[in-house]
Amino acid sequence: MRRAFTLIELLVVVAVIALLISILLPALNDAKKQARTTVCMSNVRQLAMGFVLYSQDWNGLLPGSTWDFVPPGNYNRGKPLCWLGTINGRGDKDHVPSWGTIYKLIGEQTAVYKCPEDKLENRAMRTNGVADKPLYSYTAPPFLTGAPTSLLKMTRWPENVSTWNTNTDWDKATGHSLPWMLVEEDEVEYLAFVTDSAWSNVDIPSNRHKERATIGHIDGSATVRKYQRFPVKHDAWNTYYELSDGRVVTAGWWGGSVKFGYIRTLKGLNQ
User: Fold this and answer.
1) pLDDT tens per residue, the chain (271 residues)?
2) Buried b (16+ CB within 10 A) or exposed e, 203-223
3) What is the separation, in whole angstroms, between the first and last Cα of the chain?
């Protein structure tokens, strides 16, 4: 005689399956998140290599990193030298990133400009006004505009930020890495604006990768690292660039490119 499962046995099987699902789903979600983090790292590596290739073509000078850097007499033609192709004051996203100076150098791959974990899809943001969500997730410190790569020695930051925008923590900057060229910016800051291709002022690194952000370096590499969010968010004012000539420049200063004194030596003005 064939023996059927009892109700208790069926309930046990269902309970075991439910338990296995509850165990496996978080692991599956973690695997998906890690895959998206890997894609983000790959994106930043490719973009950073675009900066490297550009500098090799133009005597070691980096491309424009600010949305308002347009060659004299070239504004009306709307062809900026910004790496991302943004245009001063226009919010013109039709040419982002296709007018950017590194676009062709990375094979014209639009997808690499956006992190797959960036969920703010084309919805209006109202932080400091109305703005459209841009089609990118990464920005570059503005003072890198036209800077020679030979001048950039190290990026440093304090591991523990105790005050806000004091710009006095250089002596506490225990964290360090190769110079940053690209930063995965937190979307709650000015990245909401389509013309924002620079990481400066109060901008902070993202925390979308398990409280970590992706950073692109001067050698074309990328790292994912956690930066302080509490009690004070790590921002651009607490990110310092140590230069090979002994000077120190903060990433929070918009005028950094002028302080470098190289903004007018940026090559490729006619490209």
Assistant:
1) 566 667 777 777 888 887 777 776 676 677 788 899 999 999 999 999 999 999 998 888 888 887 555 554 444 455 567 888 876 545 556 678 888 889 999 999 999 999 999 876 545 444 444 455 567 899 998 888 878 899 899 999 988 888 776 666 777 889 999 999 999 998 777 665 656 788 888 789 999 999 999 999 999 999 999 999 988 899 988 898 888 888 788 888 765 444 443 333 333 332 2
2) bbbbebbeebbbbbbbebbbe
3) 86
pTM: 0.81
Give the up-direction half-sphere exposure of residue 189: CA atoms within 13 A in the CB hemisphere.
23
Question: And the tokens for 82?
Answer: 């910004």
Query: Contact 141/119 with Cβ under 8 angstroms?
Result: no
Residue-level length of the chain: 271
- Cβ neighbourhood burial of 78 (10 Å; 0-12, 13-18, 19+): middle
- What does the angle CA 160 – CA 165 – CA 170 come to, to the nearest 5 degrees? 55
Task: Check if the beta carbon of residue 86 is closer than 8 Å to that of residue 132.
Answer: no
- Residues 6+ away with beta carbon under 8 Å from 244: 150, 151, 152, 153
What is the DSSP track for 41-100? Answer: HHHHHHHHHHHHHHHHHTTTBPPB-STT---TT-TTTT---BSS---TTT--GGGTTTTS
Q: Which residues on neighbouring strands pair with residue 156, listed in sequence order?
A: 176, 240
Q: What is the DSSP string of 99-117?
A: TSTTTGGGTS-GGGGS-TT
d(CA 80, CA 44): 22
Measure Cα distances from 124 to 90, 121, 189 in Å. Answer: 16, 9, 13
